[in-house]
Queue: 2 jobs
Job 1
Amino acid sequence: MTQDTFPIRKVDHIRHYVGNARQSAFYYNNVFGFHITGYHGLETGLRHEVDYLLEQGDVKLLFTAPIRPGHAMSEMIAQHGDFVQDIAFEVDDVDWAYSEAVKRGAVGAREPYSLESDEGYVRIASIHTYGDTLHTFINRDNFRGHFMPGFKKTMTAGDPIGIQEIDHCVGNVEIGKMNYWVNWYEQVLGFKNLISFDDNDISTEYTALMSKVMASGNGRVKFPINEPAEGKKKSQIDEYLEFFGGSGVQHVALRTDDIVHTVSRLRARGMEFLSVPRSYYDMLPQRVGAIDEDIDVLAELGILVDRDDEGYLLQIFTKPITDRPTLFYEIIHRKGATSFGKGNFKALFEAIEREQAVRGTL
Ligand code: FE2
């Protein structure tokens, strides 16, 4: 039994900085089926920006947009496009988490402070991680209200598609920087390296990347970190770094307990996914053995399967959801497997290369 040197309860929420939070909220409400459950803006006393809170299962997403010229946030959005700006952690003690993180080498972004209302207070602080991404520490044990003081409770119901929780969040960092951030997560946040993939695991004829999966002390927060490796052509990570303008969050994996349902609903609402050739499914039975799902249904929906020592998993990846080839989503259904779909890497990267070729960025 190893000691958890930096207790984190779980990912509390993911904040996106976007150009138009109202339209982002509409998209996640209508396509992913999130409920719009909170609002903070001019009508609730916020003068320079606006926040929409969306929820499904245990997943909370915040969409924040500047609403006046010259807002500091606008410069970041001009640089990156809409992006994941903050992966916030719920912790027992925000003041301890912040001072301990800074003592262990983190760069502080906001010192601990309280947001108060007549329903109590929420304690918050933030540190910088890779690129313009933050980790906010939050504790609302002394708050009886909705999400955070200032937020008005709203209920624009979505039609949920079975999303349960955030499974993992992947960061892309510059070449040569993966181990720097692996060490940072180990030293600052007490994460452990679960698995490593080198360019022998993750390469095609043309492109390669390296990846290490970091996990928090209690195992509930999982952050794979990718860096590009030398290949004949430009890798998907190089493409991301070029269009994003540096390191940032590449994809967020949302866990479902019924991937056929989740992906059917997403497809019916117009979501586009990466596709693999039919031959992938011809080889599937011998690669993963017996599974509960009908392979023809999986093939029709484009769902991928992989097996590890503990079970199997089903997964699928959306095409980028922004104008730039940057942020995308993964839908993952775990049936015992705790791994990340290594057996699908080759088929996936070839699928991404086909997309890159169309974009002229391979
Ligand atoms: Fe993933």
Job 2
Amino acid sequence: MRMYDLIEKKKQGQELSREELEYIVNGFTNGQIPDYQMSAFLMAVYFQDMTMEETVNLTMAMANSGDTLNLDAIPGIKVDKHSTGGVGDKTSLIIGPMLASLGVPVAKMSGRGLGHTGGTIDKLESFSGFSTVLSEEAFMEQVRDIHFALVGQTANLAPADKKIYALRDVTATVNHKSLIASSIMSKKIAAGADVIVLDVKTGSGAFMETVEEAKELARIMVSIGTMVGRETVAVISDMNEPLGHNVGNALEVEEAIGVLQGKGEKRLLELSLTLASYMLVGAKKATSIQEARSMLEETISSGAALAKMAEFVERQGGDAEQVYHPERLPRAQYEETVMVEKDGWLSSCCNKEVGIASLILGGGRETKESDIDLSVGIVLHKQLADKVVAGESLATIYGNDKEKIKLAAQRLAMAYEISQKPIEKLPLIKEIITKEDL
Ligand code: URA
């Protein structure tokens, strides 16, 4: 086989075989295929697309390019969830403890934040002493013992995806549905769960801006999962504004704890319950979504999910007292209020700008090497469609550098538009795609 011929074949819009895709993925991962040929191939895929069969074969070639986790030693049906990325998205911190308190094994690998969206691993490091590095044995043992462990993705999990993504990032080939779907699913499949629930975000600041695009991406991912024998469901959720009130690492942990204490913001609670319900049904611990939902609500009202959070934090070396006293999480030195500028209704939010405001404060990473400040961030006091009055508080900014606070405040004020007419509140859950919908 020659890479040149395979690029030509894809350029002509022909279908590549499993062997050909494996040749490309393996050759690129081990350095035999150079970046310039892989770039040309990715661009050919971008314009010619791939069939479903090609997408599955590409996904599996990437999933098998490094270590794959075998979770068979953990009893029960293992569940995982993945979000395509959003601002203020802290559902993993809520779902993990809820499900674990019901005996569902959650063996989760998460990423760090980059750019304007945060990562679960960074958020959890807000607990003093919390470690996200566990050996495979310790990870498995923890899931067996307390049903929940969360670690950073190991370097050798789907290394082909890591290398291909880095190339896509600089060749304008990120934003392609089959490539996104195979990238996400390769990591989820390599991480070993039996049930995969996907949270596909749509709206400003999301990869998929329209619901139609999000649906198409969701269908591709559910098809891949189904074709390789993993129970896969996708929930399409709104990302036209941050999820919940808090954006920033420790602030998001504090808000997640609030949900587990029964004081959660409505949309954040709703999305967490929806995703977790599908995971609970997938794990065969509930027979219907309604039953799953009431079991999950009970984990909050009984305090079981909060207790599980404390157990999980302690087991990974963190200070469990901070779960019961979130005011002991890292706190920024200064705070500043951003005021509403005129009367009306909040009509649009440039979500990405809110994420960038948090990034400016130091809450996110510009590059993989940047350090982050866990204590900074934003608490939003208003949501889209709210009636607002000039001079009331739109948001509070928490920071450690007055100059950065000023810049973040300007950014935040520009993120929102105010209309003179009431606007309709958009539904949070747009659609749910299961294998029956394919
Ligand atoms: N997230 C991923 O993991 N891969 C993509 O291609 C896009 C988002």
